[in-house]
Amino acid sequence: MATALVHPWKRRSLGRGQAQIQSITGTVLAFTDSLSWRRKSLEFRETRAAQDFFSTCRSPEACCELTLQPLRRFPLDAAIIFSDILVVPQALGMEVTMVPGKGPSFPEPLREERDLERLRDPATVASELGYVFQAITLTRQQLAGRVPLIGFAGAPWTLMTYMVEGGGSSTMSQAKRWLYQRPQASHQLLRILTDALVPYLVGQVAAGAQALQLFESHAGHLGPQLFSKFALPYIRDVSKRVKAGLQEAGLAPVPMIIFAKDGHFALEELAQAGYEVVGLDWTVAPEKARERVGKTVTLQGNLDPCALYASEEEIGKLVQQMLNDFGPQRYIANLGHGLYPDMDPEHVGAFVDAVHKHSRLLRQN
């Protein structure tokens, strides 16, 4: 399959999420974290057995091992560094724990404007996250050029939701309350997060990351007006400043991917936000998305992850339809979001095989 993403490497692929799989020119990558199928894999349990989640994130050796595990199981063409988007709030001084069966928890979330005074200077965040850079460098060494390595971070609005809500939420009502009742404080927090993210992402590239992905996982909770006011400006700023930071540091530019889940109302704006790739979830029709973003941006997506509960034969049919709908130009085959812990790894393999098979047929035609 054709794509524009042959950036610093030749005909290699890109891209993370909870466990995303992508394909470029008929090759496949996997992006996995603790919420993916690795949670139930023997290798993952053995690696994590003696440590809690964030202790694992702070171990370069453990992160390297967990990054390499999917490559041993599937014929993938890229790796995504094992980490978590919430290491950034931690580096800003907030306590974050991973509660079994619940997910991330902030014992002392941001409740009042004065709580912003508790946050550390964002200029210190990159130095606090040196363990991520060490993990990237170690993993690049272990990969020895076999496949490219991808770095990532959460976008400012998504990080803000966790810091204000104190964890996951189905409504994001506390975070949205800030936007309506404390708009200036909200912008202050979003600027702090942007100021922290820029050197962090530049540092990932300096450490060896060959592409970057930004996850605006909670875009859909905003709607067009709030998104344009409180999310999009910071998404743009991250891209602009990271690219400038790479240039100032004498580093080569790398592809950048933006994935705003349920952000279909802002596709045109995202396509012009300074990213080479726009990710789509499964609620967006491929043909309509292409019409809206034009021909200069690569699209990524967008099989419903629950399709992997189907039979392997049905998965093959769904993949074929997806590839036909997107067509061969400027496209990365992918799930529309992350895998779920109870999904059968064999069905992940069926997805990978189907993308390989139908990509070859599409190229031949």
From TrEMBL:
<protein>
    <submittedName>
        <fullName>Uroporphyrinogen decarboxylase</fullName>
    </submittedName>
</protein>
